[in-house]
Specification:
CATH topology of the largest domain: OB fold (Dihydrolipoamide Acetyltransferase, E2P)
CATH class of the largest domain: Mainly Beta
Structural class: alpha+beta
Largest sheet: 5 strands, antiparallel
Strand content: 25-35%
Number of helices: 7
Strand order of the largest sheet: 5-4-3-6-7
Radius of gyration: 27 Å
Oligomer: single chain
């Protein structure tokens, strides 16, 4: 029989199955050794898989570097849903309903982050109340808001009321922004239990809120793609200036007739017309 080659890293089912039967939390090196991956390459492959499973919310690592299954510890993975009043909820990836998070728990996260939560009791409305055990991943670091200066410090007040913490802007990180400008800030240090998020300003959108500024704010807030790739730009350069004969076939040509548009002056296109 041909010899089979041992894979360079375990698969997720093998690793999860091993941790399911483990009676204690184990470090990456210990897990790799138990599974037979003893080389430096094997240990790094096991570590990479552990990190991947942690980001998915399936594993938890304690302060001593020990890994264990989240569901064995009754931990729940999900997305943070913030309320403008300061409290929030964890929306679980599967299974149970939303879990209430009081304001002091929400200080370390922002709307859109992903976290592991432990249910610690019931709140005054008899809802399950949680405590954040681990932050799995952070939301997009770019936030739209208005730049302000208070007592010599720069801050950005987010436009999205669900982001209830102002962003601190260190001196020299305000760019060309002036107080009152609507800006795009990029978080450089996420919030912690006793620290506000720190950010730098990467784009100034404007001051007076009009149609154009509102569009830019929506694009940045929702991460809508708005820049054309080089490939698309090159393709548009090949579009002819004149209508080709083949394109006129079976069409009525009205280009010589006077047409009146009913689109407004600030319309993005002029495709509504009266003949």
């Amino acid at each position: 029989m041909p010899k089979t080659t041992k894979p360079k890293a375990p698969g997720a089912p093998q690793l999860l199955g091993f941790l399911q039967t483990s009676a204690k939390l184990m470090k990456a090196e210990e897990i790799a050794d138990e599974l037979g991956y003893k080389t430096a390459e094997g240990i790094e492959a096991v570590r990479a898989l552990l990190d991947q499973l942690m980001q998915q919310g399936r594993l938890l690592r304690n302060r001593r570097g020990g890994y264990g299954l989240a569901d064995k510890m009754d931990l729940i993975a999900g997305s943070i849903i913030a309320n403008s009043e300061g409290f929030g909820f964890l929306k679980p990836d599967e299974g149970v309903g939303d879990i209430y998070l009081p304001p002091f728990q929400m200080r370390q996260v922002l709307h859109g982050d992903r976290a592991l939560v432990s249910v610690v009791g019931r709140d005054k409305k008899d809802r399950p109340e949680g405590a954040i055990v681990s932050i799995l991943s952070r939301r997009s670091p770019r936030i739209v808001g208005r730049y302000l200066e208070e007592a010599g410090f720069g801050v950005v007040a987010p436009d999205d009321t669900r982001i209830h913490q102002d962003l601190l802007i260190p001196k020299g990180q305000e760019g060309d922004a002036k107080p009152g400008d609507v800006v795009v800030a990029e978080i450089t240090e996420p919030p912690a239990q006793h620290r506000q998020p720190v950010a730098k300003i990467v784009r100034v959108l404007g001051e007076e809120v009009g149609t154009s500024l509102a569009i830019d704010m929506a694009i940045e807030t929702h991460g809508i793609p708005h820049e054309w790739s080089d490939k698309v730009i090159a393709e548009t350069a090949r579009i002819p200036d004149a209508v080709r004969p083949a394109q006129r076939r079976d069409r009525e040509d009205l280009r010589e007739l006077p047409l009146v548009t009913i689109d407004g002056e600030d319309a993005r296109d002029f495709d509504d017309a009266v003949w």
